[in-house]
């Protein structure tokens, strides 16, 4: 499912932006695999420094507090790969949400950030009750 979302659906939406309405519906679907696909459909374009980060951000915001590991992992995965080309964008999105994101999301998302950015995100989590020295205080 991940490969189809990233390699087939994502490029289709990039070529025909009106298809993004399908992703909008997927992002709110009751099945977490469909919601995950809405996130991962954006992976390749964002990884290349392109794509609609605002759309991804809306979806991720709505899913940040999900308990499903595979959603948390997908959010972190897309943030990590986006951060390789646009670390400042990922940092600006992640920092104000540092308290809400799961540990697995943070661990992935901070990998491409600068040391200073990484430390700022982890410090924000620790100040809000996260475990110092660990990239997340919530159970994953």
In short:
It contains nine helices and no strands. The chain is mainly alpha-helical and 140 residues long.
Give keywords.
mainly alpha, 9 helices
Describe this structure in words.
There is one protein chain. Mean pLDDT is 90; it is low at 131-140. By secondary structure, the protein is mainly α. It has 9 helices and no strands. The longest helix has 15 residues, at 69-83. Helix 6 (69-83) runs parallel beside helix 8. It is globular. The chain has one domain (2-127): Leucine-rich Repeat Variant, CATH 1.25.10.90. This is DNA alkylation repair enzyme. It comes from Raineyella antarctica. Pfam families: DNA_alkylation.
CATH architecture: Alpha Horseshoe
Mean pLDDT score: 90
Number of strands: 0
Q: Label the structural class.
A: mainly alpha
Distance between the termini: 22 Å
The value of Rg in angstroms is 14 Å
- Indicate how many domains the architecture comprises: 1
Helix content: 55-70%
Number of helices: 9
- Give the low-confidence spans: 131-140
Beta-strand percentage range: under 5%
The biggest sheet amounts to:
none
CATH class: Mainly Alpha
List the topology elements.
Elements: H1 2-15, H2 20-27, H3 32-40, H4 43-47, H5 53-63, H6 69-83, H7 87-94, H8 103-109, H9 115-127
